[in-house]
Design goal:
By secondary structure, the protein is mainly β. It has helices at 57-62, 67-71, 92-96, 125-132, and strands spanning 19-22, 29-30, 33-39, 45-52, 55-56, 78-85, 99-105, 111-117, 143-146, 171-176, 180-188. The protein has 4 helices and 11 strands, in the order βββββααβαββαβββ.
């Protein structure tokens, strides 16, 4: 079974160029560069885009029950820069073989780069879509589904052996030749303008 869980409330994601949030009391975190499926109410994949939902490794590592609190925070989910619809120029075959690259640029001059091919993800995108939307679990408004990542930064930042964690002001850019580039700057969730425009406002 795939690990399918909710990461963000409808309409709460931020776009490219916006600040993306981490919790102020998280001391170990990193970006999660992912391909994200756009899925309609019938469960059909209609397009794809890039996403970053930030991994609070210390929170998630303490308990699986903290996963919701680690993921669903103000500005903690970024999507964009657009949805590329499936058509004759962008097929399921193209989707399955996408290359995703990431660059982190710190205000102090730190740089980290990496990437992966979607073929490194162990599950097929259509399998994940079918496990998310089916006769047991419906989304009448459709969903966007993060496919997971094969990237985790290991480059030391600071003391040798301490690994990577975000610092305020980091600019994270996720890119793919067929999906463009999603770029966001790191800040604390409680310092980013609160999300106040929800479904009820429509």
């Amino acid at each position: 079974d795939a690990e399918v869980f909710n990461k963000a409330q409808p309409m709460s994601a931020v776009g490219t160029g916006a600040e993306i949030g981490i919790l102020q009391n998280s001391s170990w975190n990193n970006p999660e560069p992912e391909v994200v499926l756009a899925i309609n109410r019938a469960g059909s994949v209609i397009g794809a885009m890039l996403g970053n939902d930030v991994n609070l490794r210390d929170w998630e590592g303490r308990s699986a029950l903290l996963l919701g609190r680690a993921k669903d925070n103000n500005a903690s989910c970024a999507l964009g820069p657009f949805v590329r619809l499936l058509d004759q120029r962008f097929t399921l075959g193209d989707l399955r073989s996408l290359r995703v690259d990431i660059e982190v640029a710190g205000a102090e001059g730190f740089e980290a780069k990496g990437g992966y091919d979607l073929t490194q993800i162990s599950r097929d995108p259509l399998d994940l879509a079918a496990q998310a939307v089916n006769r047991n679990h419906q989304y009448p408004d459709g969903i966007v589904l993060f496919l997971g990542t094969a990237f985790a930064p290991t480059q030391d930042r600071g003391e040798p052996g301490c690994g990577f964690t975000h610092e305020l002001g980091d600019v994270v850019t996720i890119s793919s030749p067929k999906l463009g580039a999603l770029s966001n700057r790191i800040n604390y969730c409680n310092r980013i303008a609160p999300w106040t425009y929800g479904v009820s406002d429509l």
